[in-house]
Amino acid sequence: MEKNILIGPFRQVVTMEQIPLKGPLQDNQLPVIESAGIMIQGEKIIALDSFNELKRYADENKYEILQLTGDFVAMPGMTDPHTHICYAGSRSNDYALRLAGVSYLEIAARGGGIWSTVTSTRKASDETLFNHTKARALSLLNDGVTTVEVKSGYALNVKDELRMLEIINEINNISDIDIVPTCLAAHTLPKDFQGSAKQYLEFLIKNLLPEVRKRNLSSRADIYIEKSAFSADEGLYYLEKAINLGFDAVVHADQFSIGGSDVAVRAGAVSADHLEVSSDEEISRLARTNAVAICLPGASIGLGTGFAPARKMLDAGCSVAVASDWNPGSAPMGDVLIQACILGAYEHLTMAETLAAVTCRASAALKLQDRGILKKDCLADVIAFPVSDFRDIVYYQGKMKPTLIVKKGKIIRKP
Hints:
By secondary structure, this protein is an alpha/beta fold. The chain folds into two domains: 4-77 and 372-413, Urease, subunit C, domain 1 (Roll); 79-364, Metal-dependent hydrolases (TIM Barrel). The chain is 38% helix and 22% strand. The protein is built from 16 helices and 16 strands. The chain has helices at 51-60, 92-99, 104-109, 113-123, 126-142, 158-174, 197-214, 232-244, 260-267, 280-287, 297-303, 310-316, 336-347, 351-357, 360-364, 391-395; strands spanning 4-14, 32-41, 44-50, 64-67, 73-76, 78-80, 145-151, 178-186, 220-224, 248-253, 271-274, 292-295, 319-322, 382-385, 404-407, 410-413. Strands 1, 2, 3, 4, 5, 14, 15 and 16 form an eight-stranded mixed sheet that branches. Strands 6-7-8-9-10-11-12-13 form an eight-stranded parallel sheet. α7 (197-214) packs parallel to α8 (232-244), α9 runs parallel beside α10 and α13 (336-347) packs antiparallel against α14 (351-357). The protein is globular, with a radius of gyration of 21 Å.
């Protein structure tokens, strides 16, 4: 039986409704409803209006009412559209070496980097990998992330890439948070593969991707285009084959060198992620497409490198989202709101641009139109902060956490 509930009153509800998915935003464009309530039936919102008006209806129809005392500002549950939280092991040694001046690429050459995590993940039991990944996903939910993308890519062979995706899907099936799985078997050339990078991609196209689709484990294929991973030509070839198999294309692009964003444009990718070194030319090309530019400030913080040029991207007309990039190597923090606020301060993003980057625009990066906004018939994914003005959410730089979390109409946390 569906549960009917009214929640409120909220001092403000920032709905994100009718926010354009591309280009710059001013704070006065944010749709804010004062003294509002949110009425939920089952998993969806059925009304968003004056709390007093909705309460009369709720009383007459015997709805459950969660009546809030004090000031609260509600907004859509956040979407984190780029994470690597399915892994085992730690890379604290890598981090110590980076702090001592050793480069990311040199650490990888010494046996650290991605390969270190691949070794640990392959050795981990199903139970260990399941428990660690589930705990990270629930940590995100407790921070107000109601939908998260999770990549494979720390196995780099058929058996264990499938195992990673199966575990990710299993956690999605039993957890309150929604998980969108992505196949990132093209993360880097595994050291134990006897052949070239192109041959490895051919191997994935023939042996892994069809099985992923057959088992319905993922509809998204990602590739890391970088000097330490795969070339632009190899990436375009791989993505074209993946698209023919029914995958949406995603690209790790322009992190240390350019080339990946051009592949994203040419392949018609859903998103181009990283983009720290994208120049005006790359940004202009991306702006002419529907690809979402996903900034990963956590990686910049972890690596001590510059942030993606989010201000330039927005002004050029790009759709800009922010993700945590939670991974064991470069971005172990895993807090998307803190990272979005830090990026906003350095890149001079408006509060509207920052909030859109973790809600409606982040959801668009995963092709999800039923969340990231609060309106009738959308999922009842709602978070609320104990403040009276939406600007305080960004003002506290992500340190303030939601005290109300609702996922698909289920109350996960209440004040």
